Structures are given as C-alpha cells and as structure tokens.
C-alpha cells in the first residue's frame, strides 16, 4: 500500500523560500503511469492543485504558481497526493476523489 508523508518547515517568513518534501513508501514512484502531485488547502478555501511529477519524470507546474515571486499568501495545509494515471489540472481545482492516495498534510504558516 502506497503511503505518502509530507514534511516542511511549519513556519516560514515571506522573504524565505518554501520547501516541502514528500516521502513515498510502499511503492515505486516510477511504477505504472502514476502521477505525484502537490495540492494545498488555504484557510477557508478549496483544494488547489499545484503541480505534478509523472512516473517518467516529466513535470507540470501550474502557471500561476510559476509566475509567483513571493510566498506571502501561501499559508496552507500542503498535501502530497498520487493518482494512478498522471494527470494535469490546468484549472488548479481538484477534489478528494481525483487522487487515489493522500498524505496527512503539512501545515505551513507564512508570517513575518
């Protein structure tokens, strides 16, 4: 059974870089046609899909995220998630049922 575990800084200043790690166990990240995504939920808002790395190493990052130069609005619970067929969500919206596996989430607070 694939298990995902997020790890992150917890608290980060707006001027800093936000880095998160997803640790995968119980399966291979290159198996099948899986996609491994980052999804976040800001306070009071819906899930936001951020990007994916596929089984073959190809990646897609949401355009709005790529154009960002500040993390000041990035307080959220960040989830590592996987689905059996690597999928992009250009609208940046996804639901719980879109992914077959979810991590428990890591809360990141951006504050000075």
Written description of the protein model:
It is a single chain. It contains one helix and nine strands; from the N terminus they run ββββββαβββ. By secondary structure, it is mainly β. Strands 2, 4, 5, 6, 7, 8 and 9 form a seven-stranded mixed beta sheet that branches. The chain has a two-stranded antiparallel ribbon with strand order 1-3. The radius of gyration is 14 Å and the shape is globular.
Instruction: Provide the β-strand percentage band.
Output: 35-45%
Number of strands: 9
Largest sheet descriptor: 7 strands, mixed
Average pLDDT, rounded to a whole number, is 92
Query: Which blocks of ≥5 consecutive residues have pLDDT under 50?
Result: none
**Topology pattern, helix = H, strand = E:** EEEEEEHEEE
Rg over C-alpha atoms, rounded to the nearest angstrom: 14 Å
Task: Label the overall shape.
Answer: globular
Alpha-carbon distance between the two ends: 39 Å
Tally of helical runs: 1
Assign the structural class, choosing from mainly alpha, mainly beta, alpha/beta, alpha+beta, or little secondary structure.
mainly beta
Helix content: under 10%
Features:
112 residues, mainly beta, 7-stranded mixed sheet, 1 helix, two-stranded antiparallel ribbon
């Amino acid at each position: 059974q694939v298990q995902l575990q997020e790890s992150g800084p917890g608290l980060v200043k707006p001027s800093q870089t936000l880095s998160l790690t997803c640790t995968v166990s119980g399966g291979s990240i290159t198996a099948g046609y899986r996609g491994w995504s980052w999804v976040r939920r800001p306070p009071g808002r819906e899930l936001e899909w951020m990007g994916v790395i596929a089984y073959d190493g190809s990646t897609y990052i949401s355009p709005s995220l790529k154009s960002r130069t500040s993390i000041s609005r990035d307080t959220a619970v960040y989830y590592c998630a996987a689905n059996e067929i690597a999928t992009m969500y250009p609208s940046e919206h996804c639901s719980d049922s879109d992914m077959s596996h979810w991590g428990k989430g890591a809360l990141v607070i951006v504050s000075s």
